[in-house]
Every structure is written in structure tokens, then in C-alpha cells.
């Protein structure tokens, strides 16, 4: 990727640049290029549709990792009013790798949580590159339980490479808090929508990923491990991540097909980074629809349906057992 | 039984030390027993029969060899009381993942188990329990849809019967990569089933053995009322190599052992293998 443009977009970008040139010519030199422009735009349209119709899993991963892809804070800015950020796990420290707080989704107060990558190097260090420690998950859980107490809906925006794999993280119980967070989120008596907005890195994502609705933006990825980890395990070669991505079934379309997510949230053509405001509008519209359905349900029913949703996940076989002799009692 | 474990040549077998990628001693499939094994813990040459009698713990240095599910059953559960459930629940290949079917076939052949977890009812010291045990030899004890479903059904049966649950974990492989997102979701499914019995006031004891990592550790294994671990068992979330690569330093001595987990407040007890059954009976009696 150069200047935020992917290799596979170059032909389109070049074409669009030519169209722009012709438009400028037309204005400056008062020559009519309208037929040429129309023809090129027609080509560009076709090219656009062709390029983005059939992105490979690895291309999706790259879009999900684009450095200008909107973050949790960006979506908060676009979608919520009067956002109040809340801090700390009340036990150890405030982990800035996860953002949490309360804001208005139009006139509905909601709790919003989500991992946050830094937007520059300094911020990345403060936010540990968006890799949460246990205290980050403890903060998220605290805020979610608080929301449940007030029957306030929860929105979890998930973009996380993984739970931080460090010594202190292990010491402070990374595995334990992930398990606890999953378990407690499962039975919170308030509507929960989880959206994978970028990277869905395994347990670090699932810890804040149990909800009544599981949504995924079109170019996000979500799996049990990263393509790099998969490549390492399969071939001891992380650089073969693109190949590994093919096997993992980690795209939004894969997860819809597998019955894991409820809906794919469309993005502006080429990815949310092309037009963050438009991406937010698309996301907000869908979230509002789901919340308006969910807030009407009694908490008991809500939880029952949530548990039923996860109960049916997985595919396995039941083989026929050999009939034992004792079964033939009719003889 | 014993003769399945050890090679005939060489005359001793090196038993590998704990890391999540090493395989269990019992995996060395073979027909004749060797007289001696070498303990990776202390390097001593040990008379094989002595180690077996000692529950596969080195009599010199107390190194706890990895053992398989059937051996766990023999050691922990009252004889002839184990009734398996859901034995016919096996893995398919939902993602059409490269080499998954081969790996499953190999594990089936090697362990004679149908999946990485054995579940059922049993008695321990006369107390009726639901009992589950993961076998590290079957694809590293990793959890895919079938394992997740079996464990979930075991907890659900606990809810029906109100029998306490004893779950012995050895899931070094964590969530099974070959089933992708489906494996990940088993963490949610099993944790939710555990949650229901905990909320119903039914006791759940988790035994963590070497190694218990990743998605297994970060779901049902960690949610018990009492968490017991064997000495020096490798227990943690992130794999040690991943941690090492991330922090770019050598790992501290004893990192992610049971003792480390205990020091940092993550587990209740470290119990030697020879005392494990007794401890479970004691805990069951108190609940």
C-alpha cells in the first residue's frame, strides 16, 4: 500500500485521476471533453465494480488494517452526542487500550465500549497499540454491568488484534478475565449489540463480543487467530499469512454463511477509510434499527434468546452407534 | 496398557518437559515396554514400573508426566463407575480446512478416542459427579465444535441431575484453529453452560493439568468454584513463544507454571497427583 492506496486499486485510481484531469482541462481551456469523460467514467464504474466485487480474504484483512480506517473514537464522534468517557477498573489502573463511556445515540442513552488503536505513534504507546491488558477488560465489564443496572443498551465496537500477550497481562489474569467477561456479558439484562469494525482477534474480541446482535462491517475480519498466527502454526512461516487467510473463513461473508453474525454492515466502496462519515451513517442506521427491536423485549426473553443464539454455534457429527445385541428384544 | 506407552528401543525414553507443543509420553505408540525411562525433570534413569506405580510421577524429583484421559479416569474415578455420554459426537470439517481430516484420522488412530474430550457420569469417593477429561494427545487437547458441544452437554446434564462437575483440562492447543470462528464460539457456549450451573448453586471443580492454555483456559476451565492445578503445570492464556516474541526478552523463570498462577492469585490449590482424588473427595464432601 502506498499513500493509503492498495495495489489492486491503482488502475482505478489512475483512471479517476485522468477523469479529473479532463474535467480540469474542460474548465480551463473551454474545450468539450464531455464524451471522453462519460466514456472514462463508464469504464471506471465497471472497473470499480469488478475490483471490489470479489475481494480475496487477504485483501479484506488489509482493508480492515488500513491506517486510516475509522476507530472506535471516530465512530463515537460521528454517531453519538454528548459522549462522556469513563475510566478505570476501580482496582488497578485505566487501560487506555479500551475506551468506554456513555453517550446519546440520537435520543437513546447507551453505553459504548471498544478497543482503541492510537492515531499516531505517541498515542499508540499510550494505548498499547490497542492491545488490552486485563484491567481494560475489567473496565469494560464494569461499565457493561453499570449499563445493565440502568437498563441502558450496550454497543461494543470491536477492532482488536488480540488481548495483550505480555508478562504483566498473564500475571493479572488475562485468561481469567476473558472467561469471566464472556460469562457475565452472556446474562446481562440489557440489549447488547456487538460490531466487528476492524480486526476480530480471537479471545480478546470475544471477551467483549457476546451480544444479542453480532454485526460485522463488510471488510472486517474475525477468527480464532490471526492469519499470521495460522501461517506460523501450519508452515512455521508468518509471511504466508495471505495463504492462511484463505483457509480460515474469516470474512464477513464467511461468518454470515456460517450463521455466526446476524448482518453485514455495508461500507463505502473501497472501505470505510474512503469516507468515514458515510461509513458511520451506514453503521448508525443499522444499529438504531436493531436497538429499536431489542429494547422492546423483556430482559428474560432477551437473555434466553442470546443464550440460544450461541448454543447453536458449531458444527459436528453424530455417528450411528453399533446396535447392541440387547436392543433386539423383540426376538 | 503400560506396554502401549514406551518404546522398546532405545532402552530408555526421554520424557519431554512441559511446553504446549510437546507431545505426551503416552503418545509414543508402541507394543513393548522398555525397562527404563529418563525423567526430563531431573534426568534420572527410572525403572518404568516404579514410575507407573507412582501414578507417572518421578519418584526422585516429583516431575508429573503427562498422562492420557483413560489414565486420569483410572486415577480419579471410582472403579467401574464411569458411564460415558455423547460418545458418538465427533468432528466434521466445517471450514474444509487443509489437512484437518488427516489430523483427525491420525488422532483417532493414535488415541483410540473419538475426540479430545471424554465426558460422562461417575462416582468419586461415592459422590455422583459429571466428569470430563481432556486428552492432550488428541490434537493437543484443542477445542473444536465437537469438544465444545460435549462439554456443554455435560454441564447441561449437571443442571438436570444437580451432580457437581469435575472437569480435568489439558487443553494445550486452546481453541482448535482448524474450525476457525466456530472454535472460538465454543468458548462462549461452554462458558454459558458453566454459568448456568454456577447460578443454580451446583459446585464445579476444575483440575488444570500440563498444559492448559488459550481458549480452554480462558473459558470453562477458569470459571470453576475451586481451581486445582498439578505442580509445575503450564497454565496461561498466551503461548509462551508469543509472549517471548512480543516482549523480546527471555521469559522469567517459572513463568506460566501452576506456581506462578498461584502466586498471582489465579488458582486455589496446587495438589500433587497422588493427593488429587482425596482432595476432590474432600471438596465434594464439603459442598
Characteristic terms for this protein:
heterodimer, A: alpha/beta, 2-enoyl-CoA Hydratase, Chain A, domain 1, B: about 290 residues, 2 domains, 3-stranded mixed sheet, 9 helices, 11 strands, about 15% strand
Short summary of the structure?
The complex is a heterodimer of chains A (331) and B (287). By secondary structure, chain A is α/β, with parallel strands linked by helices. Helix content of chain A is 47%, strand content 16%.
User: What is the H-and-E element order of chain B?
Assistant: EEEHHEEHEEHEHEHEHHEH
CA-CA gap between termini of chain A: 74 Å
Largest sheet of chain A: 8 strands, mixed
Q: How many DSSP H or I helices of chain A?
A: 14
Class derived from helix and strand content of chain A: alpha/beta
Oligomeric organization of the protein chains:
heterodimer
Please list the strands of the largest sheet of chain B in the order they lie side by side.
4-6-7-8-9-10-11
Domains of chain B, number: 2
Total count of domains of chain A: 2
Percent helix of chain A, as a range, is 40-55%
CATH class of the largest domain in chain A: Alpha Beta
Q: Tally of extended strands of chain B?
A: 11
User: Strand-and-helix sequence of chain A, N→C?
Assistant: HHHHEEEHHEHHEHEEHHHEHHE
Amino acid at each position: 500500500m502506498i499513500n493509503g492506496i492498495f495495489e489492486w486499486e491503482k488502475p482505478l485510481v489512475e483512471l479517476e485521476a485522468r477523469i479529473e484531469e479532463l474535467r480540469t482541462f474542460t474548465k480551463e481551456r473551454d474545450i468539450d471533453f464531455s464524451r471522453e469523460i462519460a466514456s472514462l467514467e463508464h469504464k471506471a464504474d465497471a472497473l470499480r465494480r469488478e475490483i471490489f466485487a470479489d475481494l480475496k480474504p487477504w485483501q479484506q484483512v488489509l482493508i480492515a488494517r488500513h491506517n486510516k480506517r475509522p476507530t472506535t473514537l471516530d465512530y463515537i464522534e460521528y454517531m453519538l452526542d454528548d459522549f462522556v468517557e469513563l475510566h478505570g477498573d476501580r482496582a488497578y489502573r485505566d487501560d487506555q487500550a479500551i475506551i468506554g463511556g456513555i453517550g446519546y445515540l440520537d435520543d437513546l442513552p447507551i453505553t459504548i465500549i471498544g478497543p482503541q488503536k492510537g492515531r499516531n505513534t505517541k498515542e499508540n504507546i499510550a494505548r498499547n497499540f490497542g492491545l488490552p491488558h486485563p484491567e481494560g477488560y475489567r473496565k469494560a465489564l464494569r461499565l457493561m454491568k453499570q449499563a445493565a443496572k440502568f437498563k441502558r443498551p450496550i454497543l461494543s465496537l470491536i477492532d482488536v488484534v488480540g488481548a495483550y500477550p505480555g508478562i504483566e497481562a498473564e500475571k493479572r489474569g488475562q485468561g481469567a478475565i476473558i472467561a469471566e467477561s464472556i460469562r457475565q456479558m452472556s446474562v446481562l439484562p440489557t440489549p447488547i449489540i456487538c460490531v466487528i469494525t476492524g480486526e476480530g482477534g480471537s479471545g480478546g474480541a470475544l471477551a467483549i463480543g457476546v451480544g444479542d446482535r453480532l454485526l460485522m462491517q463488510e471488510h472486517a475480519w474475525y477468527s480464532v487467530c490471526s492469519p499470521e498466527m495460522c501461517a506460523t502454526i501450519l508452515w512455521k512461516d508468518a509471511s504466508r499469512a495471505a495463504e492462511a487467510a484463505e483457509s480460515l473463513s474469516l470474512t464477513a461473508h464467511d461468518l454470515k454463511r456460517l450463521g455466526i453474525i446476524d448482518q453485514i454492515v455495508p461500507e463505502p466502496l473501497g472501505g470505510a477509510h474512503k469516507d468515514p462519515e458515510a461509513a458511520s451513517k451506514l453503521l448508525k442506521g443499522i444499529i438504531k434499527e436493531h436497538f429499536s427491536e431489542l429494547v422492546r423485549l423483556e430482559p428474560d426473553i432477551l437473555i434466553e434468546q442470546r443464550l440460544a443464539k450461541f448454543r447453536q454455534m458449531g458444527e459436528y457429527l453424530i455417528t450411528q452407534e453399533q446396535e447392541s445385541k440387547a436392543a433386539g428384544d423383540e426376538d | 496398557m503400560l506396554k502401549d506407552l514406551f518404546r522398546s528401543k532405545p532402552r530408555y525414553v526421554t520424557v519431554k518437559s512441559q511446553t504446549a507443543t510437546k507431545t505426551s509420553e503416552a503418545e509414543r505408540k508402541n507394543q513393548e515396554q522398555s525397562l527404563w525411562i529418563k525423567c526430563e525433570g531431573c534426568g534420572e534413569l527410572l525403572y518404568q514400573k516404579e514410575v507407573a506405580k507412582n501414578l507417572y510421577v518421578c519418584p526422585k524429583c516429583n516431575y508429573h508426566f503427562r498422562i492420557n484421559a483413560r489414565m486420569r479416569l483410572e486415577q480419579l474415578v471410582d472403579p467401574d463407575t464411569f458411564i460415558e455420554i455423547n460418545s458418538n459426537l465427533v468432528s466434521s470439517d466445517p471450514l474444509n480446512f487443509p489437512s484437518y481430516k488427516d489430523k483427525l484420522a491420525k488422532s483417532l488412530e493414535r488415541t483410540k478416542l473419538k475426540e479430545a474430550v471424554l465426558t460422562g457420569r461417575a462416582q468419586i469417593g461415592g459422590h455422583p459427579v459429571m466428569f470430563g477429561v481432556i486428552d492432550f494427545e488428541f490434537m493437543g487437547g484443542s477445542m473444536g465444535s465437537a469438544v465444545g458441544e460435549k462439554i456443554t452437554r455435560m454441564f447441561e446434564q449437571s443442571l438436570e441431575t444437580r451432580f457437581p462437575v469435575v472437569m480435568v483440562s489439558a487443553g494445550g492447543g486452546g481453541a482448535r484453529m482448524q474450525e476457525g470462528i466456530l472454535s472460538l464460539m465454543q468458548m462462549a457456549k461452554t462458558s454459558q453452560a458453566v454459568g448456568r450451573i454456577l447460578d443454580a448453586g451446583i459446585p464445579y471443580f476444575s483440575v488444570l493439568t500440563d498444559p492448559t492454555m488459550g481458549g480452554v483456559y480462558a473459558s470453562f476451565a477458569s470459571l470453576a468454584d475451586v481451581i486445582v492445578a498439578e505442580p509445575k503445570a503450564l497454565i496461561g492464556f498466551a503461548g509462551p513463544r508469543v509472549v517471548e516474541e512480543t516482549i523480546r526478552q527471555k521469559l522469567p523463570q517459572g513463568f506460566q507454571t501452576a506456581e506462578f498462577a498461584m502466586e498471582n492469585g489465579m488458582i486455589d490449590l496446587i495438589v500433587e497427583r497422588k493427593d488429587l482424588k482425596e482432595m476432590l473427595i474432600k471438596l465434594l464432601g464439603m459442598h
